[in-house]
Specification:
Length: 229
């Protein structure tokens, strides 16, 4: 079953730049998909349209059965509950501990304390950081901070995990650690993962599906792909 469908999607920004042209995509539930292409090719714009940070100018974006562009602002939470997001720069709250960072969103939706504890510890276990629950982000390495950000994104077991250049600030060794974590989340939780990157080494090693964008056009959608320019 498809978790994501894009039909004839154009995205033109207000300054007149068209970032995406006539994009058609179907992504199956449980997939692990890389979105690749050089800087400015439209990777972030595609990711942003999936969580309604940007709306398409034309066409349809369906995520988990929701018509994203048509969602009223007050219904956007319905989409956001279906997904987690990881950014290049981690975006952790520096004054909260690892545990509190991961628990924060669950507290906001009024989840019970016991449930929060179970979910947070499971998420931290899944990213291999159960021994750092009481640390503050400032005392962690970049790779560890990114693993906290991943734990935060998956804590409520979303169907979809969006990652925009998650290894962009990390060295090759730490980047591969992050990829192993993402791969295990994809396998054990069945979470669909879409990851924008321009890290060729990672894409070639992981052998996942690859969507290649060039100047806003889809040039290739390959199963078990490698990075080709
Ligand atoms: P990538 O993630 O592959 O680097 P982006 O999606 O960020 O590509 O950008 C695609 C194109 O859209 C680029 O030409 C970029 O300058 C433009 N763009 C991105 N965001 C905006 C914005 N908010 N306003 C105007 N143009 C933008």
């Amino acid at each position: 079953m498809d978790l994501i469908r894009l039909r004839n999607v154009d995205k033109k920004y207000k300054n007149g730049v068209t970032a995406i042209y006539d994009l058609n995509l179907a992504i199956e539930k449980g997939s692990f998909v890389f979105v690749i292409g050089s800087s400015g090719s439209g990777k972030s714009t595609l990711i942003k349209m999936l969580y309604r940070e940007e709306k398409p100018t034309k066409g349809q974006v369906i995520v988990g059965g929701l018509d994203v562009a048509k969602l009223k602002n007050k219904k956007v939470y319905k989409l956001r509950r279906k997904l987690g997001i990881v950014f290049q720069d981690y975006r952790l709250l520096p004054k909260l501990t690892v545990y509190e960072n991961v628990a924060f969103a669950l507290e906001c939706i009024g989840e019970k304390k016991d449930t929060i504890r179970t979910k947070v510890l499971k998420a931290l276990e899944d990213v291999g950081l159960k021994n750092k629950v009481h640390e503050y982000p400032g005392n962690l390495s970049g790779g560890e901070q990114q693993r906290v950000a991943i734990a935060r994104a998956i804590v409520n077991d979303p169907k979809l995990l969006l990652c925009d250049e998650p290894t962009g600030n990390l060295d090759p060794e730490k980047s591969m650690e992050i990829m192993k974590v993402l791969e295990s989340i994809n396998k054990s939780r069945g979470t669909t993962i879409i990851m924008a990157t321009h890290d060729k080494e990672i894409v070639n090693k992981m052998k996942k599906q690859v969507i290649t964008l060039k100047d806003g056009h889809l040039v290739k959608f390959k199963q078990k792909g490698t990075y080709v320019e």
